[in-house]
From TrEMBL:
It is found in: Cell membrane. This is Heavy metal translocating P-type ATPase. The chain holds residues 298 to 583 of 635 of the full protein. Belongs to the cation transport ATPase (P-type) (TC 3.A.3) family. Type IB subfamily.
Length: 286
């Protein structure tokens, strides 16, 4: 039987907008000493703005943006949403013969009989297209048409208002290791990690690499590991962690389903609050 105070703990958590799917997760949460975060949508708002479009000589930047917006037409990735928002025209579906999202890479599509690639350097390499490296900070979307590089779109996301507080609260609660995993570039990851005071970050990861990283961290963790994510790609990692925590408001159904705990208001500062509450509950139970 489940001690009554567990219900008190779960009830107390739900009042804070923290939904715990079972008393065993409260117990596991009380022993967390490592918290691993996904970046986009978890530590950052996950809403990108297009800040610049750099077209190659002789290429119209509006053309680059229009082709990218059409290629991203069927994607609801935060990056795709930002590109479509920046495009002032309307998306003409008749121009799109085919579009494929390649997770952790970008999209490849057939627009007006042209093969269009929109994504990171990995996508370009995978399709044998060249690209130009750039020193800019921000997330970079390279655009290639029929194998020729036409330019890149720079997009920027911002860290959540309470993310700095969330990390310092976790450290204050005795969580030793706060780690960020991301598929984004090293430059972006480094800047976010420095701003938030994270202990560790790993960048340029494919969704499968994130599972591998979590398994590696699990091997060396003394206490339990909590993973916090929001995306479709996060479901396998959420399942692998001792405690999977999903952002509920913006999170994908797959992430919410795979999680043990759901934060209704998407605030990372609620994680330290949940850990403290879980520990209090365990002290009452024992
Ligand atoms: P994160 O780890 O930050 O949550 P993802 O794993 O979703 O990010 O994506 C990793 C990288 O893959 C992105 O930074 C981007 O370079 C590329 N990417 C993913 N989806 C798209 C898309 N729809 N359009 C363009 N690029 C994409
Ligand atoms: Mg993500």
């Amino acid at each position: 039987s489940v001690p009554l105070s567990f219900f008190g703990g779960i009830g107390g958590a739900s009042k804070l907008g923290i939904l715990v799917k079972g008393s065993n997760y409260l117990e596991a949460l009380s022993e967390v000493d490592t918290v691993v975060f996904d970046k986009t949508g978890t530590l950052t708002n996950g809403t990108f703005n297009v800040v610049a479009i750099h077209a190659q000589d002789g290429v119209d930047p509006d053309y680059v943006l229009s082709m990218a917006a059409h290629a991203e037409a069927f994607s609801d990735h935060p990056i795709a949403v930002s590109v479509k928002e920046a495009y002032s025209g309307t998306i003409d579906q008749a121009r799109i013969a085919q579009a494929t999202e390649e997770s952790g890479h970008g999209v490849s599509a057939k627009i007006d009989e042209h093969v269009v690639l929109v994504g990171n350097d990995r996508l370009m390499s995978a399709h044998g297209s060249n690209w130009h490296d750039c020193e800019l900070t921000g997330t970079i979307l390279h655009v290639a048409i029929d194998g020729s590089y036409v330019g890149h779109i720079v997009i920027a996301d911002v860290v959540k208002d309470d993310a700095v507080q969330a990390i310092s609260d976790l450290h204050a609660a005795g969580v030793e290791r706060c780690v960020m995993l991301t598929g984004d570039r090293k430059e972006v990851a480094r800047a976010v990690a420095a701003k938030l005071g994270l202990d560790e970050y790993h960048a340029q990861l494919l969704p499968g690499d994130k599972v591998e990283q979590v398994e590696r961290i699990l091997d060396s963790a003394r206490g339990n590991l909590a993973f916090v994510g929001d995306g479709i790609n996060d479901a396998p990692v959420l399942t692998r962690a001792d405690v999977g925590i999903a952002m509920g408001a913006m999170g994908s159904d797959a992430a919410i389903e795979a999680a043990d705990i759901v934060l209704m208001d998407d605030k990372p500062s609620n994680i330290a609050r949940a850990i403290r509450l879980a520990r209090r509950t365990m002290r009452i139970v024992h």
